[in-house]
Design a protein that fits this description.
Elements (H helix, E strand, L loop, with lengths): L1 E4 L3 H11 L7 E4 L6 H6 L6 E4 L1 E3 L3 H9 L4 E3 L7 H19 L5 E4 L22 E5 L7 E5 L1 H4 L5 E5 L2 H8 L15 E4 L1
Parallel strand pairs: 1-10, 2-3, 2-6, 3-5, 6-9, 9-10
Antiparallel strand pairs: 4-8, 7-8
Length: 194
């Protein structure tokens, strides 16, 4: 794991945007939450495909991404559908990516919660190893029901970066003990922190 630390949000954003090497037809996985939004607002997205990696039952992640990138081609879980139907639709999308190029993401942008969760995989989540998507729940955050890509799908990435802000998340990341969802991504992970 490589951790790049920045003193200001502006330096953090500049470093991230400079590090991205996106090409026509690339597929980029997008985390929800507030931390990555300013990056999304600054991306050149005309020739890139995007997939939202998790969704809350209220559809707020895809809504945030759509607001930040109004003209981008973004696929996400359809929160207006029953959960099983939304999971099935996303499975078809991901299987199409794998069939086309042998993996899903050219770039995966992860965020991390203060409890070490990634996407909507929480420390107590049961995540099937052989599926690409699953339904999870949490009692820690306001929106209980979630839909998420699994480790299998998230790990099908050529490059993974983690965007974090704040000392709490940085300290958690620097003191990992192997029992949090983020631990699955430490090898080869590039972290951008401010």
């Amino acid at each position: 794991m490589i951790i790049h630390k920045y003193k200001t949000k502006e330096d953090w954003m500049d470093a991230i945007l400079e590090s991205l090497d996106l090409h026509m037809g690339d597929t980029v996985g997008l985390a929800g939450g507030g931390t990555p939004r300013p990056i999304y607002e600054s991306l050149d997205y005309e020739t890139v495909n995007f997939i939202s990696i998790d969704e809350r039952a209220d559809g707020s992640n895809l809504n945030m991404i759509s607001e930040a990138m109004p003209d981008a081609m973004v696929t996400g879980f359809d929160a207006s559908l029953p959960i099983d139907d939304a999971l099935n639709e996303m499975t078809v999308v991901l299987e199409g990516e794998i069939a086309q190029k042998g993996y899903i993401f050219d770039l995966l942008i992860l965020g991390m919660g203060p409890d070490g969760h990634v996407a909507s995989i929480f420390p107590d989540s049961e995540v099937p190893e052989d599926e690409l998507v699953c339904h999870t729940t949490t009692d820690v955050f306001d929106v209980h029901d979630r839909m998420t890509l699994t480790y299998k799908a998230l790990e099908s990435s050529k490059r993974v970066i983690l965007l974090i802000s704040g000392e709490v998340k940085l300290e958690l990341l620097e003191d990992l003990k192997g029992d949090l969802p983020i631990d699955r991504f430490v090898e080869g992970l590039e972290v951008f922190a401010y």
